[in-house]
UniProtKB/TrEMBL annotation:
Transmembrane residue ranges: 25-50, 102-120, 140-162, 205-225, 237-258, 270-289
Record's function text: Putative odorant or sperm cell receptor.
Residue ranges annotated for the G-protein coupled receptors family 1 profile domain, each copy included: 41-287
PANTHER family, per the entry: OLFACTORY RECEPTOR
This protein's record includes keyword rRNA-binding: no
Record carries keyword Transmembrane helix: yes
CDD domains, sorted: 7tmA_OR4-like (cd15226)
Lineage top rank: taxon: Eukaryota
Name under which the protein is recorded: Olfactory receptor
Length: 312
């Protein structure tokens, strides 16, 4: 490989989810539908938040940004995975592999920080409702989203700065459908123990800090509501159920990954699928499609569309 990495490996072979031709055709259909539904659902959320004035609030602004992150998270690897189901040779260039690693950690890290921002929004809305609009101004929301992007980019760059210069001189088979950083590092032609510890520390520390902040935020919210009103616990659980569900779905796979970060298990591929396909698909369903405001916005959008058709 020419350049700074001094490597003879110019491409990696992705082993994918299955070697069976029949299973690959079945998975091609399943993931094509899932990816299409995830993209349409999240695009719809963004469109509704932009076009409906009733959704011009901090909560929905953050939700629309979460939808954008989910679209990016689903797109960095899923389209290639779907195309590879129809290809006999599943390869990716060195540059393409490094790009997948970079974007995975940018969008994953940014989404973690955004989930913390959304928990903070719910804390202000429930615990300090009279000051909600003054505290959660558009400027503050924009800063929170900007900070999530910055942390995600810095987090990813700190991984890539040493990975791109590793010497890859022989093995080039990645046992997944995308370039997963721990699997790629293990292919390097040197002792990667120290690098593995650095990767675990970097990603694990960010995940742990975000998870603890989320845990503290929701604990304070539940305690506050329970103390202020009778039956408050059930009301709080109802209000926060969507947020907590998404947090569990997002951090559940991460907990498993960081318990055995550099060991390979059959369930690893399933966890990767959940992280890149099913979580972006579930976000619109869990967060907003059962929300009365969003349902009303969808109804108005549908009526406008029908009305414009009747005019023509």
């Amino acid at each position: 490989m020419k350049g700074a990495n001094n490597s003879v490996v110019t491409e990696f072979i992705l082993l994918g989810l299955s070697s069976s031709r029949e299973q690959q055709l079945f998975l091609f259909f399943i993931f094509s539908v899932s990816y299409g539904a995830a993209m349409l659902g999240n695009i719809l959320i963004i469109l509704l938040v932009i076009t409906d004035s009733h959704l011009h609030s901090p909560m929905y602004f953050l939700l629309s940004n979460l939808s954008f992150f989910d679209m990016c998270q689903a797109t960095f690897a899923t389209p290639k995975m779907i195309a590879d189901f129809l290809n006999e040779h599943k390869t990716i260039t060195f540059q393409g592999c490094m790009s997948q690693i970079f974007f995975l950690h940018v969008f994953g890290g940014s989404e973690m920080v955004l989930l913390v921002a959304m928990a903070y929004d719910r804390y202000i809305a429930i615990c300090k409702p009279l000051h909600y609009m003054s505290i959660m101004s558009r400027r503050v929301c924009t800063v929170l989203v900007g900070v999530s992007w910055i942390i995600g980019i810095l987090h990813s760059a700190s991984h890539l700065v040493f990975t791109v210069n590793l010497p890859f001189c022989g093995p080039n088979k990645v046992d997944n459908f995308f370039c997963d950083l721990p699997l790629v590092i293990k292919l390097a032609c040197l002792d990667t123990y120290v690098l593995e510890i650095l990767v675990l520390t970097n990603s694990g520390l960010l995940s742990l800090i975000c998870f603890l902040l989320l845990l503290i935020s929701y604990t304070i919210i539940l305690a506050t509501v329970h103390h202020q009103a009778s039956g408050g616990m059930s009301k709080a659980l109802s209000t926060l159920s969507a947020h907590v569900t998404v947090v569990v779905l997002f951090f559940g796979p991460l907990i498993f990954i960081y318990i055995w970060p550099f060991e390979s298990f059959p369930i690893d591929k399933f966890i990767s699928v959940c992280f890149t396909v099913f979580t972006p698909l579930l976000n619109p369903m869990i967060y907003t499609l059962r929300n009365k405001d969003v349902k009303e916005a969808m109804r108005k959008l549908r009526n406008r569309h029908v009305g414009s058709k009747q005019i023509f």
